[in-house]
Amino acid sequence: MKNFANLVYSLDQTTKTNKKIELVVDFFKSACNSDKLWCIALFSGRRPKRLISTRYLREWACEVTNLPTWLVEDTYSVIGDLAETISLLTPEKNGYSEKSLTAWISELRQLEKQSLEKKRHFVVNAWSTLNRKERFVFNKLITGGFRLGVSQKLTVRALSKITKIDEFELSLRLMGNWHPDTISWNSLIINDERKSDISRPYPFCLASGLDKDTLELGKRSDWVAEWKWDGIRGQFIKRAKELFIWSRGEENLTERFPELEALLEFIPDGSVLDGEIVAWDGEQPLDFNILQKRIGRKKVSKSLIETAPVILIAYDLLELKGMDIRNQKLEARRSKLTELINPIPNNLPIKLSKEIECKTWADLAHIRETSRSQSAEGIMLKNRNSDYYSGRKRGDWWKWKLDPLTIDGVLIYAQAGHGRRANLYTDYTFAVWDGNQLVPFAKAYSGLKDEEFRRITSWVKKNTIQKFGPVRQVHPELVFEIAFEGIHESTRHKSGVALRFPRMLRWRHDKLSKDANKLKDLKAFLT
């Protein structure tokens, strides 16, 4: 535990990628195999099940520290992280522990069927045994994941350095359904004994946002252009006559889209397709909000399948007849995908993502402007000679998204952020005018620089009208331009609409609150 705690602390102290890789490599060199496996699991979101409510952790922290509840809660609101708050408030250790990370996780999980009192005794005793860094990690194991800016790609690079195994191969070994409970370090990393796992997906190939003129990309004919669909990125896998659907976030979605099982009869065994799962009205994709109704359901009802039908819009082929073809060029993979999909009856839930045909970049730019009428977010550009690589390789795949929709709103509520922004008011609620009233329509917390957040925080403290717990109502004076990707009607919101991915584009110093947009302006985006 000590070495892992030091790793977590050190990772939090740097933003340099090479330094982070060096730190992870050093940990892997000294840790036992089971701790290395749990490190990879925790960094990739495979954390233990939460066994203790944060409510009880707060109560026990008050008991141990002899501090009043209000003071612990106020400290938490300033620090913004409960695990860190408790690690700082609880007295320094009296004992000493040499238990490994794996041992602590094992003992924590044995608490599942224990009484609340036994859980309390174990946690309080742990707090008295571990030092501050170790207490923080221990609390994180109870309360949630580790958000340390350590991507899977970074972990893979560190693993490659100590194992001498190719990063491309390691990325594949870490994909899919594995857990430290069911596999060893040697089986997962060294020997790749999961080759026989028929459900294992491939690492996804990712695109970068286009930040240059299309003319800099060279010939228009060298690039495949497709619509960028607004759905769930997923891999459709058929192996041993079974179906598996994996999301980009490595979540098994098979049971959530049972209608895709109809494709099993027509897709050859040993096939892996990459594409977008979208809600479909028979002609084109439906609003993402309709698809979202199915995302949180592990099993879907017949009525939901009828009201939110889905299809797979396929745009790449990664495996065919059991052969990994990711190293073949995009042009060849698309050709094989077309041959696979064309014979499938039109009434089945799969479509080929067709190439947008045009000769010049100027023509494509005009077509891109029609994206919303196609229920798309913009255009994808893929080099015809590109492999299907793991992760993001800048230059071969680009997202050429439409500029976001925007509206000017008035700041009416503010709340402190979390983590390093716990001392700043960064989470805002915005409103538009409906007659003489301001109607809230969106919350946003990103898009501004730290210096702007500091200035707004100072203003919020001086212009608070009243408080509602951690939320402050402020004088309706500041105006911000809010960007968003989509909008739909909503009975859950007072404004009657809900925005997709709202964020602050800029602080409108040039506008007074009376100059902000009206509710009718916002609803005009619905048409």
What's the gist of this structure?
With 527 residues, the chain is an alpha+beta fold. Helix content is 34%, strand content 23%. The longest helix is centred in the first third of the chain and has 14 residues, at 17-30.
Shape: globular
Q: How much is the average pLDDT? A: 90
Provide the number of structural domains.
Answer: 3
The assembly state of the depicted protein chains is single chain
Any idea what the CATH superfamily of the largest domain is called? DNA ligase/mRNA capping enzyme
Number of helices: 18
Report the CATH architecture of the largest domain. 2-Layer Sandwich
Q: What name is given to the CATH topology of the largest domain?
A: D-amino Acid Aminotransferase, Chain A, domain 1
N-to-C CA distance? 57 Å
Strand content: 15-25%
Let me know the number of strands.
Answer: 21
Q: Over the alpha carbons, how many angstroms does the gyration radius reach?
A: 26 Å
Tell me the helix content. Answer: 25-40%
CATH class annotation of the largest domain:
Alpha Beta
Salient structural properties:
single chain, 527 residues, alpha+beta, DNA ligase i, domain 1, D-amino Acid Aminotransferase, Chain A, domain 1, OB fold (Dihydrolipoamide Acetyltransferase, E2P), 3 domains, seven-stranded antiparallel β-sheet, six-stranded mixed β-sheet, 23% strand
